[in-house]
Design goal:
Length: about 525
């Protein structure tokens, strides 16, 4: 093993040990399920902002998005980024304070809790359906995170993929099971800092190796349609393919997903003071915009490095997603200090993966232990509840690891499907629950089911038809669910006086903060 690999291993090793230490430290604050699932609502504004965005971005920020830009130009990646930036801001602006206040009033510590308490659903149908939705989309999402870690270590050190993936999963599960939501949020803050350092180092180093900014831009300009927001570059034919209005709207619709992301919404619910969410919103929005822009440009820089002969050409979407790994490997050959910086970059990739996986594990385990098993074990002691929560987390992790045994899946594709699932199933019901007092229990249930089902129908039955139908499944699912919620709510009995008064109380309080 060479000096560069040793330095990389030292940097990554110190990072992973640090995450476990944080988990152990946070475990001392977990005395109840409320502490484990939502940190006792004790998050400060900076931790809230950065943990929300770190858990949101996942490995696709450092792998998926640069890979798309590298392979097909900035068009698809840019419209996705624009949608995400607008969605991020809108979610913080119109949802954050309301869900924080509403969840506190209804004493809800998970998203299924909130939906069930909001509509006084004594049958627990909403709670069970929403918990199932979380499991269906979060387990493969988590598996993609485990797989990304396995790919990273396997390609870097030549170790067996399965071994690398399992070791990575054990680390993530370890600090999450120990420290719960507080550990996940605290480590996410650290991970967002590491991710930022990784983006900056790769950005500067890549430009230098490619021959400077002028060389990077000249290379991109010489590729047909590569820098256009109206066309995508097709490397197979070396031509530009039109990126029409439908495609732009479809990709921009990524932003709708934020309204239904449980791991992001939980951060809003967990802040210690809803008045501090304004500061959180500003921090989160600025970080997201800068990070997305740099990630896209890293793909452009990576292609310039390829054409300059510094990096081998990466053919195909899955291979293109490793461009930042290739750049890090090149950096590590420049000496001990650069090798340590390369280790930090690779730790940043781990951070982007781990920050999402830990949050997903918390949300998925809470869906099972509290919102499914908890229905039948309401009188359990806090100690037994905590044990059930941790056991559930471990079981879900094993299932995710089994799914992750295939190293050939695309991170971007898996993330986009899960994103559509939550956006379609939870996004409309969340907005209607917060902003339309006439929404009924039946409307909420119907909207959630129709949105989730439409994601599958559109993805596997309609979208393959191509042409006009080649729309990102989130958009039609969101529209269908919204229509169903309105129609069913108007056709069913209006909410009780108690529900209406609670809605009006929350509305009046959040209008003046």
């Amino acid at each position: 093993m060479g000096t560069s690999q040793i330095c990389i291993m030292i940097a990554i090793g110190l990072y992973l040990i640090g995450m476990l230490i944080v988990g152990a430290a946070c475990s001392k604050n977990n005395n109840t399920a409320d502490d484990f699932y939502i940190g006792g609502r004790r998050l400060g504004p900076i931790v809230t902002a950065m943990s929300a965005e770190a858990s949101d971005m996942s490995s696709w920020l450092l792998m998926g998005l640069p890979g798309v830009a590298y392979a097909t130009g900035i068009c698809d990646a840019s419209w996705t980024a624009i949608g995400l930036a607008v969605g991020t801001y809108a979610n913080w602006l119109i949802v954050a304070k309301k869900i924080r206040r509403y969840s506190h009033v209804t004493n809800s510590i998970t998203i299924p809790d909130f939906f069930s308490n909001r509509y006084r659903d004594k049958s627990n149908v909403i709670m069970i359906i929403s918990a199932i939705v979380i499991l269906v989309f979060f387990i493969p999402y988590t598996a993609s995170g485990f797989a990304a870690c396995g790919k990273l270590f396997s390609s870097l050190f030549g170790v067996d993929y399965m071994t690398a993936m399992i070791v990575s999963a054990v680390i993530i599960v370890g600090y999450t099971a120990l420290g719960g939501f507080l550990a996940a949020s605290t480590t996410d803050l650290i991970q967002s800092i590491v991710m930022s350092i990784a983006l900056i180092v790769v950005f500067i180093f890549g430009i230098k190796v490619a021959g400077g900014m002028d060389a990077v831009l000249d290379n991109a300009k010489n590729i047909t349609g590569y820098l256009s927001l109206n066309t995508m570059y097709d490397p197979a034919t070396n031509t530009a393919v039109e990126y029409g209005f439908i495609s732009k709207v479809s990709t921009f619709a990524w932003g709708l997903g934020y309204f239904g992301m449980p791991h992001v919404l939980l951060r809003f619910m967990a802040i210690n003071d809803h008045n501090k969410l304004t500061l959180s919103r500003r921090i989160a929005t600025v970080w997201v915009v800068i990070s997305l822009a740099m990630a896209i440009f890293i793909g452009v820089v990576g292609l310039a490095m390829t054409n300059a002969g510094a990096v081998n050409y990466l053919e195909g979407s899955s291979a293109a997603e490793t461009i930042i790994v290739e750049i890090s490997a090149l950096l590590s050959t420049y000496g001990i200090i650069p090798a340590l910086l390369a280790g930090i970059i690779l730790a940043g990739i781990l951070a982007s993966t781990m920050s999402t996986a830990d949050s997903q594990l918390i949300a998925a385990s809470s869906a099972v232990s509290k919102n499914i098993f908890g229905i039948f074990n309401k009188d359990d002691s806090p100690k037994r509840t905590m044990a059930l929560a941790r056991t559930t987390l471990l079981v879900i992790s094993v299932i995710a690891a089994i799914i992750a045994r295939n190293p050939n899946s695309s991170v971007f594709n898996i993330v986009s499907f899960a994103w559509a699932g939550f956006g379609g199933a939870f996004g409309p019901i969340m907005l209607f629950s917060l902003f339309w007092r006439r929404t009924t229990r039946e409307g909420a249930i119907s909207g959630m089911i129709s949105g989730g089902v439409m994601v599958f129908v559109w993805k596997y039955c309609v979208k393959p038809m191509g042409g006009f139908w080649n729309i990102y499944e989130l958009l039609p699912a969101f529209i269908v669910a919204s229509i169903v919620i309105v129609v069913v709510s108007l056709l069913t009995k209006e909410p009780s006086k108690e529900i209406i008064e609670e809605f009006d109380k929350v509305k009046s309080e959040t209008n003046f903060v």
